[in-house]
Write a structure and sequence with these properties.
The chain is α/β, with parallel strands linked by helices and 545 residues long. It has 14 helices and 25 strands. It has an 8-stranded mixed beta sheet with strand order 17-16-23-22-21-18-19-20. Strands 2-1-7-3-6 form a 5-stranded mixed beta sheet, sandwiched between helices. The structure holds iron/sulfur cluster (SF4) (2 copies) and FE2/S2 (inorganic) cluster.
Length: 545
């Protein structure tokens, strides 16, 4: 593979790569505002300037400039190499690039910073981007001096709503046009544009429109400064107090990779941010998914319920034993409901209880009803683990919940043991059917029809409170990492299944997630079912876009 050198380090590049793209892939950070690896090149901020050395034997391209001479106290003619924007300059074999090692580049980056900050309000103490703002970071890395302009700055509109989710502050905007390009190129809704020129320019929404498509929060996320802020997040938390867990969005079957940012002091989730994964979501997430972090705490079942009344988990398990008494005499009368919204580990535990211990044969699956999909990211299947459940069940493929209702009306079952809270059928219809049974035990993280219809409900952790594996629509098994401490008495779903099994007199000895994962996939420790299409996810270097 052809290579270029950046500051003496040899890195490979692919046909058509720009210098910054090749550097980014190799984990080398070249400062940039307007460039984003998922967007077209605008080359308007000039922060990514580098010095490209001339080929051997050729003179460097020089520019005539005027340089301040402190002794003469005047500008004098001078020359300097012509720098190039690395986001636009294509790589060529053997090219030698100076980035951090060039004095000319260092000077240029400082000058670009000074220019960008000339009219900036520097309201960092009250800016929601503080702590993760490129202007702050690059000022510290590349400028570190005050600006020389003494005049009043150009004032522009502040706190302008762009739509239901985003607020714009024109004074902070550096007109990098990332938001404009994102809406046009990724969201495919070119609703933003630039108005005016020079220091009067600002971003505007098309007349008669709002920024209101399915990816508005991404326009805020791609903004490298505090010009766009999310109404949901602004003024709720300071980012330096937050921690990040590597999560998988539970909003649909796409399984976008995300960081779940949470405050460990209050055990509160605050936002989702996309985590780059070229095979799944590239750099993006949809609004529905980005706001779905709230489900980690909203509508929770945090206590066990016995007959609809709060109870301790141990008491609920004792009550479940009574309610399911006699189930072992005729396992054919037990229906098992897996959940397309729970992890492989939770579903595998319930499958093991059903097949290995109870001897139940009939499997059903619960989940959210179909919703809106698109040809960008969103799946119509709003469940995060449909393929995982199908792969785990193998040949005994689970039937839709609607068929369980028919079977109950036909008198086929006396008992149901279910995982999950969500149903794609009418809640009342489900409740009417389940109320005919002798015993209904549900393990769920949220309130919902399956919980309200259950004799006994056990409080499970959400995806945010426990590690879990989910298989997305492409068949890629992905791990989601625990962020929060369990709410109330919630415990991981697999653990509650194992405790239920023990309460029913079965030898379900699992006490740790590692034991479940080993049982799930004995040849390895990935926790991935062997019959699911498993693909290794390439870890990208941690260079931010
Ligand atoms: S709002 Fe943000 S992303 Fe859009 S042009 Fe201004 S600085 Fe760039
Ligand atoms: S596309 Fe699906 S998985 Fe991705 S962010 Fe949206 S809801 Fe979440
Ligand atoms: S990042 Fe290259 S000019 Fe803006």
């Amino acid at each position: 593979m052809a290579t270029i050198k950046i500051d003496g380090r040899e890195i490979p590049f692919e046909q058509g790569d720009t210098i910054i793209r090749a550097a980014h892939r190799a984990g080398i950070d070249i400062p940039h505002y307007c460039w984003h690896p998922g967007l077209s090149v605008a080359a308007n901020c000039r922060m990514c300037l580098v010095e490209v050395l001339p080929p051997p034997g050729r003179p460097a391209m020089q520019l005539d400039i005027l340089r301040w001479d402190p002794e003469k106290k005047d500008y004098v003619p001078a020359r300097k190499p012509k720098l190039v924007p690395s986001c636009q300059q294509a790589c060529a074999p053997g090219m030698e690039v100076l980035s951090d090692t060039s004095d000319h580049v260092e000077e240029a980056r400082g000058a670009v910073q000074e220019l960008l900050l000339l009219n900036h309000p520097v309201d960092c103490p009250i800016c929601d981007q503080a702590g993760e703002c490129r202007l702050q970071d690059y000022w510290l890395e590349h400028q570190r001096s005050g600006k020389r302009m003494r005049q009043e700055i150009v004032h522009k509109p502040k706190a302008t709503p762009f739509g239901p989710t985003i607020i714009y502050d024109a004074e902070r905007c550096i007109i990098c046009t990332r938001c404009v390009r994102f809406t046009a190129e990724v969201a495919k809704d070119p609703v933003l544009s630039v108005r005016e020129r020079g220091n009067l320019n600002e971003i505007v929404v098309s007349p008669g429109r709002q920024l209101d498509h399915n990816y508005t929060l991404m326009t805020e996320h791609v903004c490298p400064v505090g010009a766009l802020t999310s109404i949901d997040f602004r003024f709720k938390a300071r980012v330096w107090f937050l921690r990040s867990a590597r999560a998988i969005c539970q909003g649909c079957a796409t399984g976008c990779n995300a960081y779940l940012d949470y405050d460990p002091r209050t055990n509160t989730p605050h936002r989702y941010r996309p985590r780059d994964n070229m095979e799944v979501n590239k750099y993006w997430m949809c609004d529905e998914g980005m706001l779905s972090y709230k489900r980690a705490v909203e509508g929770r079942l945090s206590m066990a319920l016995v007959g609809g009344e709060d109870a301790g988990v141990d008491d609920a398990l004792a009550a479940a034993k009574e309610q399911l008494a006699g189930h072992g005499d005729d396992p054919g009368r037990v229906a098992i409901v897996l959940s397309a919204t729970h992890s492989n580990e939770d579903n595998f535990a319930l499958l093991t209880l059903a097949k290995t211990f109870i001897g139940a044969k009939d499997l059903y699956v619960s989940g959210k009803p179909l919703g809106q999909g698109d040809d960008i990211l969103m799946s119509a299947d709003k469940n995060s683990n449909t393929r995982g459940v199908m792969a785990l069940a193998g040949a005994s493929s689970p039937k839709p919940f609607a068929e369980l209702i028919d079977a109950i009306h036909a008198g086929k079952y006396a008992y149901v043991i279910a995982l999950g809270a969500e149903l794609e059928v009418d809640a009342q219809e489900a409740k009417n059917a389940l109320s005919k049974l002798k015993g209904v035990v549900t393990i769920a993280a949220h309130e919902g029809p399956l919980v309200s219809a259950a004799h006994i409900a056990l409080p499970a952790c959400t995806w945010a409170e426990t590690d879990g594996t989910y298989v997305n629509r492409q068949g890629i098994a992905q791990r989601s990492e625990r962020a929060l401490l369990p709410r109330g008495e919630a415990r991981p779903g697999w653990e509650l299944v194992a405790r239920l099994g023990r309460a029913l007199g079965y030898a379900m000895s699992w006490k740790t997630l590692a034991e479940v994962r080993r049982a799930l996939s004995p040849d390895e420790t990935t926790g991935v079912p062997r019959d699911a299409a498993e693909r290794a996810l390439v870890q990208k270097p941690e260079v931010s876009a």
